[in-house]
Amino acid sequence: MTPQHRFRSITDELARLTAQREEAMFAAFATLERQHATLAVLLTQHLGDRQRAARWMGMHQRAFGGRSAYEALADGEIDRVWDRVLGSDDSNPVPLPAARLG
């Protein structure tokens, strides 16, 4: 296999994994919408759209000890997630998108 073909194979694999990650991200957010609808609506409104809210939920954050909000929820820490979203945990609340700041 030539280097060019190897890179094409790597690129194809990364694209496949990215698509799987996006699919999992939206499936996880759909679960959040079913189990904690108010939280999901607040995040969506606060961040501007469902995609940003879903990504925020999956981001590893210092506020959760390097875990994602989903991991915090899985550990039963719904109050900690709410505190982070609302900014009542002595940190900044969920950041607003730049378009909404001005």
Fold and architecture overview:
The protein is built from five helices and no strands. The protein has helices at 3-35, 37-47, 50-58, 69-74, 78-86. It starts with a helix and ends in a 16-residue tail after the last helix. 16% of the residues are buried.
Briefly note the structural class of the backbone.
mainly alpha
Tell me the helix content.
Answer: 55-70%
Give Rg in angstroms.
Answer: 17 Å
| Overall mean pLDDT | 89
Quick gist of this model?
The chain is mostly helical and 102 residues long. The chain is built from five helices and no strands.
Question: Topology of this structure?
Answer:
Elements: H1 3-35, H2 37-47, H3 50-58, H4 69-74, H5 78-86
Structure keywords:
single chain, elongated, mainly alpha, disordered C terminus, 67% helix, 102 residues
